[in-house]
């Protein structure tokens, strides 16, 4: 009986640790300004984003599910052009300390892929 209670307690603690870690990693950690060789990607808590490259920028909305971020362009300034709100980009991300790595999962907008993928550092 004592072994069953300990096993159940251990399982509950492990489940709570993993459940807590997952939600914190996706939402909280992505919010901020990320820099990739002068390209600044601002991810806001209200699920909006802005890519800033010199005097040009692209803004839009994003959603997060587990370790994937889906982005949709809405507006552009300067020389930048949006991919259009009908083209969603899906990317996988990994955070290691203050480093964010983005890889493509699926995106039909080739111009965006070149801008999004890479390694960013938290400012």
TrEMBL record:
<protein>
    <recommendedName>
        <fullName>DUF5640 domain-containing protein</fullName>
    </recommendedName>
</protein>
<feature type="signal peptide">
    <location>
        <begin position="1"/>
        <end position="19"/>
    </location>
</feature>
<keyword id="KW-0732">Signal</keyword>
């Amino acid at each position: 009986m004592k072994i069953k209670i300990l096993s159940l307690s251990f399982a509950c603690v492990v489940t709570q640790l993993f459940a807590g870690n997952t939600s914190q990693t996706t939402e909280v950690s992505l919010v901020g300004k990320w820099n990739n060789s002068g390209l600044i990607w601002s991810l806001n808590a209200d699920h909006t984003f802005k890519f800033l490259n010199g005097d040009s920028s692209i803004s839009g909305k994003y959603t997060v599910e587990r370790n994937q971020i889906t982005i949709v362009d809405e507006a552009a300034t300067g020389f930048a052009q949006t991919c259009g709100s009908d083209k969603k980009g899906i990317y996988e991300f990994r955070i290691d300390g203050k480093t964010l790595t983005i890889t493509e999962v699926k995106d039909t907008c080739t111009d965006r892929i070149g801008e999004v993928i890479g390694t960013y550092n938290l400012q």
